[in-house]
Predict the structure.
Amino acid sequence: MRVLVRFLIAACSIAALCDAAPIYWTGPGGNGHGYEGVDTVISWTDLSALADSKGGHVVTITSAAEQAFVFSNFGGMRRWIGATDAVTEGTFKWVTNEPFAFTNWELGEPNDDINGGTSNGEDLAELKVNGKWNDIPQILAGSPFQIAGLIEYEVNADPTAVDNPEPASGLLVSTALLGALAWRRRRKLSTL
Ligand SMILES: [Ca+2]
Ligand SMILES: [Ca+2]
Ligand SMILES: [Ca+2]
């Protein structure tokens, strides 16, 4: 697996398999996070390792707005999402431990089942071509699913993004500085 991850990282660095750069969610309500499609068939495990190695994680979709952003930019292709119920069957969690409040499951999903019959367990999840979610196993009868990836970056969020905490804290510092300067000025004037 490590070899594959190394290969993918190398391939990504020459922009062959990954999108050239993350797309940042910078519009109103955006979180400033970067989203990078891995437009090749990849296992969930390898995608997770690749995301970790690049400082990101398999995408988490925690609101209707994030679902809309992800689908409009990366829809039309089956992609893994960072949800799993491997720890407690039936209780899906995000890999980031964000609250699992918003969901967009396909009707009848999650069903932890394959072909409506023999259940091998479905403890991972994908974003389907239609935007709905489906729980699914890593492989079926030794064959990987034709599912691509999507990595989300929070650490290197675009500082110019709307609602990004960086500019807000910068603003707070500026406001505090201006306040201090005004106070000094008032103090100076009062001593004149
Ligand atoms: Ca997310
Ligand atoms: Ca399951
Ligand atoms: Ca399913």
The longest strand covers residues 34-38.
